[in-house]
Amino acid sequence: MKVYRVGILGATGTVGQRFIQLLDGHPQFEITALAASDRSAGKSYAEACAWKLCGDIPPAVRDIMVEPIDPPLDCDIVFSSLPSNVARETEEKFARAGYPVISNSSSYRMDGDIPLLIPEINADHLRLIDFQRQKRGYGDGFIVTNPNCAVASFAPPLAALERRFGIESVIVTTLQAISGAGYPGVPAMDIADNVLPYISGEEPKVETEVQKILGTYRDGQIEKADFTVSAQCFRVHVLDGHTAAVRVKLKKNSTLEEVIQSMVEFPGLELHSSPKHFIEVCDEPSRPQPRLDRDRGAGMTITVGRLFPDNVFDYRFVALSHNTVRGAAGSAILNAELLIERRII
Ligand code: NAP
Questions:
Q1: What digits encode the pLDDT tens for the residues 266-288?
Q2: pTM higher than 0.85 for the full model?
Q3: Omega before 288 cis (within 30°)?
Q4: Surface-to-core class of residue 219, CB atoms within 10 Å of its CB (0-12 exposed, 13-18 middle, 19+ buried)
Q5: Is the CB of 86 within 6 Å of ligand 1?
Q6: What H or E segment, with its residue span, contains residue 164?
Q7: To which CATH superfamily is domain 151-322 assigned?
């Protein structure tokens, strides 16, 4: 198996650390470059990074010198976990310099020629890459993105429903973990003993990304799925794992058994980071819970529960996923595996 050299932009941050943990021992990738802000550049990774994950910093990256976020970097593929205000210009520079850029940031997600991927759902949107390269003059480089971490938790069950029954409209309330705000994130004085009813910029992302993900590729463009989403996003006192409470109105009549079946039978992939079960539906009345369910499928499975007919809409359910794995670094790695399998990298 060919081993690709990868660089991580924003390597010292919450998502950057998760990349380093997930890539340790990965058969297809070797980390050869790490980049972050001026605060970190010029230091060894161990010196620059306030490591917040269980276990030690993997020995293979401890002594790598952190570089500024400018090309060139000594790697074949760039994973980006930069804040969106710096990501747009930086990711563009790397794509223009010929690198495949696989991004977690929101900067390019909604651009018409940029794939917004959940590989199990819309791998065919990779066809945008040819148009992107032509339009932007990127040569061999390109940009691919993964969704907002809250969207990653409920887009998969909605994909199952959209394919089988069609969706008319959705109401979603997200309960988002503290790690979703990066490090150091939300002050303890704000989040302890509390629920915050505002996450800057989050509701518009949650209301628009899913229609692009569930959209149809046609002639170099994505025709967005035609349902509306109304979202309220809350920050809650949970470390990892975003929960979404969803109510959905469908276009066709359906039984509860058919709805459950559409989710559990939604096909997964067989890439290295694919979970055995893409969507699991649990019967226990008190699940899913972040602490108990976020690590299903090594953090890559979506757990659905509380799935019932609804008095106002057709069905309601709760969906949960690990925000820094399925919602960020794990998804980006899955995207890279898909790009290699499809011979785009
Ligand atoms: P974070 O913990 O704040 O980390 C930010 C990283 O970017 C650090 O490595 C930091 O380097 C670097 N950085 C910050 N400002 C920079 C600048 N001006 N120039 C160069 N590097 C800079 O944030 P995060 O949670 O990892 O999020 C990173 C991105 O992923 C964001 O776009 C976020 O929206 C997205 N995302 C996050 C999650 C999540 O669950 N956390 C999920 C999905 C997507 P220093 O350490 O040197 O300051």
A1: 999 999 999 999 999 999 999 99
A2: yes
A3: yes
A4: exposed
A5: yes
A6: helix 151-165
A7: Dihydrodipicolinate Reductase; domain 2 (3.30.360.10)
